Amino acid sequence: MAPIIHVEELRKTYPGGVEAVRGLSFQVEEGEIFGFLGPNGAGKSTTIMMLTTLLRPTSGSMRVVGLDPTVNPFAVRSQIGYVSQDLAVDDALTGRENLWLQGNFYHLSPAENRRRSQELLELVGLADRADDLVETYSGGMRKRLDIACGLMHRPRLLFLDEPTLGLDIQTRRQIWAYLEQMKHQFGMTLFLTTHYMEEADALCDRVAIIDQGQIRAVGRPEELKAAIGGDLVHLRLDGAEAQAKAQAILEALPPVRSVQAADGQLQVVVTNGDDAVVPIIQALAQAGVAPHAITVKKPTLDDVYLAHTGKELRAESGSRDEGMQARMRMRRIRR
Fold it and tell me: What is the DSSP letter of 129?
């Protein structure tokens, strides 16, 4: 079976020479939850906007549901859903009226519109607030309604751009449950972008690590973590000189497979973390280097991101303010 999304050497350069996407190649299989994991400015939203027909690529090729979005945009739109970072619901309407309006956009019959609206209101836990104005909803309720609107025409493929941005962890977990239910109940393929490590790990069948417009790694979360090749020892050191000295010492130790430096921290990959701690401390002490802290743990997606990009994916890189500023810049560029 052909992949539902197939991308080859996709590029987008904005006026002024800003390269937002630089030669992306990947594919998404039907029925999976596929995630782009990376900070603002990585090219996640630009890629989704090209795949959903909202932005033309500079070069490269795309196939979405077997069609080229640049050649057959209307045919592609009829089979996909798109939930952007910006809420698209109307505060002056009720939850039910928002869904009814969305159903009319896709020419659903009145009976089908009513049936699907009620079904989705129950799915996202808004049936008891269906006839209240959206302006009275909380942020999490609005996001759930926004996702429901993207499902009114039962798309074969649903795109979600930072679906839980700015929401508290309890609401995020609720939305994860809804997304998994959509996959299993409707056989839907979901493509989401996120900067939350926990979200990508818990929700995605496969994840693409994306940074500066390029994909650094693709795979199942467990495969990406296993590929690091052992346990991790993290050391916090004071100053660049101490960090460089410690890195040189550690790279010469037999238990050490690799050492990655970033933000005053050394990430050390070792065969066995428990066995490696004592030799590491002893070697550093003999050289007069004393770390502020040392921890041993199994690899996480945060460690995978650090290993492939040389930097940590900070939570503030996906803040609502920065995301809004980035989208405003993008709109000005497109004009």
Answer: G
DSSP string, 1-56: ---SEEEEEEEEEETTTEEEEEEEEEEE-TT-EEEEE--TTSSHHHHHHHHTTSS-
pLDDT digits over 181-225, tens only?
888 888 899 999 998 989 999 999 999 999 999 999 999 999 998
User: Distance between CA 40 and CA 27 in Å, rounded?
Assistant: 22
Integer Cα distance of 185 and 151 in angstroms: 12
- Which residue in 60, 61, 54, 6 sits closest to 30, CA to CA? 6
Report yes or no on whether pTM surpasses 0.85: no
The secondary structure of residue 301, as a DSSP letter, is H
Residue labelled with tokens 């109307």: 90
Helix (H) or strand (E) holding 219: strand 214-219
d(CA 145, CA 156): 19
Q: How far apart are CA 191 and CA 5, in angstroms?
A: 10
Q: Which fold has domain 229-298?
A: Alpha-Beta Plaits (3.30.70)
> So where are the chain's domains?
5-224, 229-298
Burial-class residue 18 by CB neighbours within 10 Å (0-12, 13-18, 19+): middle
CATH number of 5-224: 3.40.50.300
Interhelix angle 240-251/273-286, rounded to 10 degrees, is: 120
Which of the four pLDDT bands, split at 50, 70 and 90, describes residue 314? low
